[in-house]
Amino acid sequence: MMRLPPFRYHAPDTAGEVAHVLANEGPEAMIVAGGTDLYPNMKRRHQMPSTLVSLRRVTDLAGIEWGSDGGVRIGAGQTLRALERDPGVEGALPALWTAVHQISTPVLRNMGTIGGNICLDTRCNYYNQNYEWRRAINFCMKCEGDVCWVAPSSPRCWAVNSSDTVPVLIALGARVTLVSDRGVRELPIAELFVDDGIEYLAKQKDEVLTSIEIPAQGEARSVYRKVRRRGAFDFPVAAVAVRLAFDGDRVESADIVLNAVGSTPVVCTDAAERLVGEVVTEDLAAEVAQVAWKPAKPLDNTDLTHMWRKKMVRVNVKRALLELAPGT
Amino acid sequence: MTQGSAPAAAETRRKVHMQLLVNGEAQEVAFLPHKTLLEVLREDMQLTGTKHGCELGECGTCTVLMDGEPMLSCLVLGIECDGVEIETVEGMATGAGPHPLQTWFADLGAAQCGYCTPGFLMTAKSILERDPNPSREDLVEELSGNLCRCTGYLKIYEAIEAAAKDMREGSQ
Ligand SMILES: Cc1cc2nc3c(=O)[nH]c(=O)nc-3n(C[C@H](O)[C@H](O)[C@H](O)COP(=O)(O)OP(=O)(O)OC[C@H]3O[C@@H](n4cnc5c(N)ncnc54)[C@H](O)[C@@H]3O)c2cc1C
Ligand code: SF4
Ligand code: FES
Ligand code: FES
């Protein structure tokens, strides 16, 4: 049996109380929502919180509330399954629905939450292994060791941000609310991520992610494309989210976001700017895909080869653009 | 990495006593607070019908129903199940005979080594409770979290469809 290590356990009733427990317990306490990321990591001994603060009883992290303008506020404790079954999400936010629907498996989506998906630990072939496996390679920088086995001369860890919803939420312009004993802050979700495999979140350890707000999308269209080996279970190894707003048949604004090709999602500003004011043609889509492809720097630390993953970024940006172009 | 200072042994090694509602029966159980529901069911309640496979969410053989929804008992804590209605494979047969799903799994060879079967049965039960006549496409999607090394899945889909037909006709 792969057992969990012991921990202290708290199950408060409100987000405010969760923040309070985190403040009292210090940085070695961690939140657990669905546990579908944290419990496997604890069983493999990469994450060993001394205290778990469970969101299971918390009532004020639920809800999918649509505003009259078409924007939506999603509670961080909402399960992926609830989002997948919400007709509003499927109808108005198809890219988010696709991303959610492609996460893991139906039974894991019954358990996993959107908050947990956003805060998902970064992943690497040398890290997501059991204790004995990692001890045999003398561990690595992300946990208990000194060296990065993917880039041994590198001073940093390159573990991969593998969340499916994050690139879509960035492309849709979502904002997140963080609550701690010190107060409440709200920020664009893109600012939540840091380009480091170990400290991958700008969230402080005592902050609870309480909600995600997605602005009304109006006539803008969006799409999510995920590369993985199997049609279920697998994390993305190259992911592309694109949102385009049109004025007639010309692009008014564009967002292109990549994930699973580095420690942080990649916002392709140059590629997006190239689209503004233009009609999306096959040639333009290919040109923009080439620009978006440049900042993707996958390393050899996930399933499938890194050169192919990089190529698939270009393929999928082009396909996404052509899929969204009017008349196609 | 979060490498916590180990919490004081006395605090975390004390068993919790609580009531779990399993297969319609409330039972008093004492277990260590860091045990998963899978461990509590198998080791503290002697309900070994629920199997342990990967213990990491990757195989589905540990699937149980929690308030009617399939969940992986290897990734839920026992203490998180306060007030939750838990159903395991032991509770499937009601009355004299097996559940139609169990009958058809046996008759059509949908259980070969049988290790994945409890998980498939629980997921299948929840599917049929939501939709008495699911399409093959829905079955494939909804069962995609349950892995089987023996049957090649076809026999499993066929058994569920046959059971669904029986159950629809039986309830008319
Ligand atoms: C077999 C398998 C396949 C998977 N496939 C995918 C996949 O394809 N795509 C994908 O994106 N994910 C995948 N996952 C990962 C995971 O299931 C999902 O990302 C899920 O959404 C995580 O949510 P959770 O509630 O279970 O998180 P938890 O495990 O509870 O938490 C994850 C992290 O987030 C933190 N956290 C959780 N909620 C909050 C909050 N409200 N505020 C602050 N911090 C918080 C926790 O402290 C922890 O660090 C897979 C997991 C497994 C086991
Ligand atoms: S990228 Fe390097 S340091 Fe980070 S988890 Fe992988 S091997 Fe370890
Ligand atoms: S034992 Fe729970 S999913 Fe494999
Ligand atoms: S019958 Fe053997 S694993 Fe499914």
What does this structure look like?
- The complex is a heterodimer of chains A (328) and B (172).
- Chain A has 328 residues and is an alpha+beta fold.
- Among the domains of chain A are: 116 residues, Uridine Diphospho-n-acetylenolpyruvylglucosamine Reductase, domain 3, CATH 3.30.465.10; 104 residues, CO dehydrogenase flavoprotein, C-terminal domain (Enolase-like, domain 1).
- Helix content of chain A is 30%, strand content 20%.
- Chain A contains twelve helices and twelve strands.
- In chain A, the strands form three sheets. Chain A has a five-stranded antiparallel beta sheet.
- Chain A starts with 7 loop residues before the first strand and ends with a helix.
- The model of chain A has no long low-confidence stretch (mean pLDDT 97).
- Chain B is an alpha+beta fold and 172 residues long.
- Chain B has six helices and five strands; from the N terminus they run αββαβββαααα.
- In chain B, strands 2-1-5-3-4 form a five-stranded mixed beta sheet, with helices on both faces.
- In chain B, a hairpin with a 2-residue loop joins strand 1 and strand 2.
- The radius of gyration of chain B is 17 Å and the shape is elongated.
- At the A-B interface, helix 2 and helix 6 of A face helix 1 and strand 4 of B.
Low-confidence stretches of chain A: none
Number of helices of chain A: 12
CATH superfamily of the largest domain in chain B: Beta-grasp domain
Order of SSEs of chain A: EHEHEEEHHHHHHHEEEEEEEHHH
Broad shape of chain A: globular
Bound molecules: flavin-adenine dinucleotide, iron/sulfur cluster, FE2/S2 (inorganic) cluster
Overall pLDDT of chain A: 97
Strand proportion of chain B = 5-15%
- Under CATH at level 1, the class of the largest domain in chain B stands as Alpha Beta
First-residue to last-residue Cα separation of chain B: 57 Å
Strand tally of chain A is 12
The dominant shape of chain B is elongated
CATH architecture of the domain at 59-119 and 160-214 in chain A: 2-Layer Sandwich
